[in-house]
Write a structure and sequence with these properties.
Helix content: 25-40%
Number of helices: 17
CATH class of the largest domain: Alpha Beta
Radius of gyration: 25 Å
Structural class: alpha/beta
Strand order of the largest sheet: 1-2-3-13-14-15-16-17
CATH topology of the largest domain: TIM Barrel
Largest sheet: 8 strands, parallel, barrel
Shape: elongated
Distance between the termini: 29 Å
Number of strands: 22
CATH architecture of the largest domain: Alpha-Beta Barrel
Length: 520
């Protein structure tokens, strides 16, 4: 006769518990985070609240558009809503960077005909339909014969045929309509432009003064540029995390050092897909995500993830697959740009992003549950064949993480899987320990505890981590009581469930040196 088992498996055999340890669907938690861009379609307080309730974890302020007053108003609204809902919400200020744009065109638009010639000329105004100006004054000096010039996100392609001191003549390889102020990409061209413009410096200083949680640097080419922004923020008293946007070929060439220097990374596929061969984009994305996994850095996948939903109420099959594959690659967050900023269905698109993430994670975690919480187990029905690793193990400690903490987190993750724990709790002042747990892709949902509001908002970006405010205390019993009350209230725990707590005991050489199992 079968042995009766406790609902949490406490009287079941270890083998039974492991085979029954897939996450309880009644208490599903979407682990992949959603970043949404604020814009005209969702700037009101009511719209922002609806987006938060739909599942947005971090809001992006695109500093390339809108006034400083508008960004300040958006930030104030986000903070009010976050406080009223008692839910930490991160804010990302996205610096425009050295984006090159066309000047004003005669009539506002020009048709580039395949095989025809166009010229880039000096100055700020053009009066002929085949003469273009740009916002980048040294362009003519830095282009060479044979260089490619891409317009309108790569839909129009030119090649440099001739140059002199006054102009550069290009032949249209792929035609189309180009409009005033649209973007110019120069794949493979080494530019002398500074990483941050005067406007970027102003925006970064505003972000530091207002307590923005993340600041992203566009068109990063080297680790030095990342370090300069970090220094700017620190000298102004900011604890904001710096996000390096990978969107230039030089960034791919210097990927390891840039990921090492940054606090987080964004796969900015819009310009990256123009600056590099679009056919290589999927593998470049995987390479960036894997580097972030090795260096324990959160990574956001961005641009056109559900682009058709700017107008449609449902995504294309390709878009849904794209989001799922980004999650399977190891993305911590997926970002919505025009879909929420100017789209017709900002709430629907956030809900759809979370639906896709939820369905993907169910299968993803069920398939890899035993590996994620202890790869020495074999999957149910696998006849003892061990589950293969799908992401590289972290190789480097994230800045501020003690090696003892890393070891305790790793060991506790295996214990959580063995005991079919329902929550993995990390008590962390800065949130760094939560990163270590997040990058292990543990199947047991993680709660990140802190008494620092900034750390809680930053934890909103970390995969699988639910930030929870708590009063600072060295007392493990008080921490567990707080988490238990919250878990029961939110439906995340039931009587008899187990919690795994990682914290510091106050003894030893430093770091989080204690893993404690608690039964509710």
């Amino acid at each position: 006769m079968a042995t009766p088992s406790h609902p949490n498996g406490s009287h079941a055999s270890p083998q039974q518990r492991r085979h029954a340890s897939a996450p309880d669907s009644s208490r599903d938690v979407v682990r992949t985070k959603v970043v949404a861009t604020i814009g005209p379609a969702c700037r009101s307080e009511e719209a922002i609240r609806s987006l938060v309730e739909a599942g947005v974890d971090v809001f992006r302020l695109n500093m390339a558009h809108g006034s400083m007053q508008e960004h300040q108003e958006s930030l104030d609204r986000i903070r009010r809503i976050s406080e009223s809902l008692a839910r930490p919400i991160g804010v990302l200020a996205d610096l425009a960077g050295p984006k090159i744009r066309l000047g004003e065109l005669p009539g506002g638009a020009v048709e580039c005909v395949e095989g025809a010639d166009v010229k880039f000329i000096r100055g700020s105004e053009s009066h002929a339909v085949d003469e273009f100006t740009t916002t980048y004054a040294p362009l003519i000096d830095e282009l060479s014969v044979g260089d490619s010039v891409m317009l309108t996100d790569g839909t129009i392609s030119l090649v440099v045929e001739e140059k002199n001191a006054a102009w550069v003549r290009c032949r249209v390889v792929q035609g189309g309509t180009v409009r005033s102020r649209q973007g110019v990409n120069l794949p493979g061209v080494k530019l002398s432009v500074a990483a941050m413009s005067a406007a970027d410096w102003q925006h970064a200083e505003w972000a530091a003064s207002t307590g923005v949680d993340f600041v992203s640097l566009s068109f990063v080419r080297s680790a030095v540029e990342v370090k300069l922004l970090k220094e700017l923020l620190r000298t102004r008293g900011s604890v904001a995390r710096v996000v390096a946007k990978i969107e230039k070929r030089e960034a791919i060439d210097n990927l390891e050092s840039i990921v090492d220097a940054a606090d987080a990374v964004m796969v900015a596929r819009g310009d990256l897909g123009v600056e590099t061969d679009v056919a290589s984009m999927p593998m470049v994305q995987k390479r960036i995500i894997r580097a972030c996994q090795r260096y324990q850095k959160p990574v956001i996948v961005a641009t056109q993830m559900l682009d058709s939903m700017q107008h449609a109420r449902r995504p294309t099959r390709a878009e849904a697959t794209d989001v799922a594959n980004a999650i399977l690659d190891g993305a911590d967050a997926c970002m919505l740009s025009g879909e929420t900023a100017i789209g017709e269905h900002p709430i629907l698109v956030v809900k759809m992003m979370r639906r896709i993430a939820n369905e993907t994670e169910k299968q993803y975690l069920a398939d890899r549950w035993h590996y994620l919480e202890g790869h020495f187990h074999a999957a149910p029905g696998s006849a003892g064949v061990p589950v293969q690793e799908f992401l590289p193990a972290p190789e480097f400690l994230v800045e501020g993480l003690h090696p003892i903490t890393q070891a305790v987190v790793d060991g506790a993750s295996r214990i959580a899987g063995e005991l079919d724990a329902k929550l993995f709790v990390v008590a962390s002042k800065t949130g760094v320990t939560a990163i270590a747990r997040s990058k292990r892709r543990g199947a047991v949902p993680t709660v990140g505890l802190s008494d620092d509001p900034a750390a809680l908002r930053q934890m909103a970006l970390y995969w699988g981590v639910t930030p929870l405010a708590a009063v600072a205390t060295p007392d493990a019993a008080a921490i567990l009581e707080h988490v238990t009350a919250w878990g029961l209230r939110e439906g995340r725990l039931e009587r008899g469930d187990r919690i795994l707590l990682v914290a510091g005991s106050g003894f030893g050489t430093g770091g989080h040196n204690m893993a404690l199992v608690h039964e509710v």
